[in-house]
């Protein structure tokens, strides 16, 4: 039975391999590494790229060669191996050690590195004519590349700002390119060096004449690019002038190497930086949004509560309803003098309704006057049972009787 035909497997598209001036295996040991680590390395421009294998298109490390101070081929201290397979790159802030497989490979690496850094083919190396031709091609490519780009030490700053940068950050370099202040489209070079403990600052003018840059010195020197201008100052001062390069050795995005299970190649994966968010925890997805916290006013004293407002308190009268002050040659109350507010009038509670007068009960008709008096006397004694009160009543009755007798006698005398 014939097996079912399977569609042809389409290979996974691979990323184009980068082109380099020179590439080969290279073992590297940094200042924090315990031992050498083998990489596939490639030189492009003034940067040395390191890959896990020669099939990877994404580098895992890189080394900037613009801060190169010197290149040495001395073997490591205490090493008994062949010194022809070791060399070191002394940079401005660190030293990197390398190890190769042969003397020819070491000379090739040294030749290409010095060619792209100094823009000239070194003459003190053991190289074949074919090797020198390869370096001449790399030199032409590097000069063309630098003619189209601006050097890293070119900053759009003023004359005073350039001096301040070189003064505050001497570890980053002492040579800086900046736009010319005359408005002609030229370039100025600012340098700062130390002589006998005092700083010496110099400014040089570079004229832009067509495609050329002419350095205005005693013997004018013409350059094809701004990078050639920087190289002129570096080489003519025996590398005492160093291009100003801000310290940007630290990455801002986390990246790592991930192996592809299908073809075994390594891929560089860089995660996107998370968007900044405001302070406070993020609300849970799908749930209710959290309300913003209410600001709480701190209490000035310990266990001090804010007193409640008294409803009967006299409030300040608004300005619109304040009575107009009269100024008739009289004393006007000062605004600073405390004003005595009149207390509020309390509404009077209505009094209880007056009791209706009770009419005296009529005396019974069948009782004579003596019996009525006797009953009245008994009722008085019953109402005032105290002996003192009864005596007082008798005394008053006696005085009243005498007064009536005197009035009666006076009336009869008037008739006579």
UniProtKB/TrEMBL annotation:
Annotated Gene Ontology MF terms? signaling adaptor activity
Record's keyword terms, sorted: Phosphoprotein, SH2 domain
* Compositionally biased residues, Pro residues: 276-296, 351-363
Residue span of region Disordered? 272-309, 328-371
Q: Tell me which InterPro entries the record gives.
A: PH-like_dom_sf, PH_domain, SH2, SH2_dom_sf, STAP1/STAP2, STAP2_SH2
- All copies of the SH2 domain together span 156-233
Question: Pfam families given for it?
Answer: SH2
The organism sits in which domain of life?
A: Eukaryota
- What is the protein name given in its UniProt record? Signal transducing adaptor family member 2
What species is given as this protein's source?
Lynx canadensis
User: In the UniProt record, what gene is named as encoding this protein?
Assistant: STAP2
